[in-house]
Amino acid sequence: MDATTVLAALEGNVATMGYGLAAIGPAIGVGIVVGKTIEGVARQPELAGRLQVLMFIGIAFTEALAFIGIATYFIFQ
Fold first, then answer.
1. Comparing C-alpha atoms, which of 58, 59, 71 is closest to residue 19?
2. Which parts of 1-77 are beta strand (E)?
3. What's the predicted TM-score (pTM) here?
């Protein structure tokens, strides 16, 4: 086994770990967005529909981070 093979295997493992770490951020973000929406609905139930729409927009932006993470995983793999 030469140095190039070891380096290629190491870069692949680092990319895999990097995506695993990158997936933690959006998961925490979605949890915060949903939790704050539940708090908002509990405080003002009449705004439930509007808060739900804003929650889905927030989740979409947060999940965009996960897509960027998986794209960088494939770039650096």
1. 71
2. none
3. 0.69
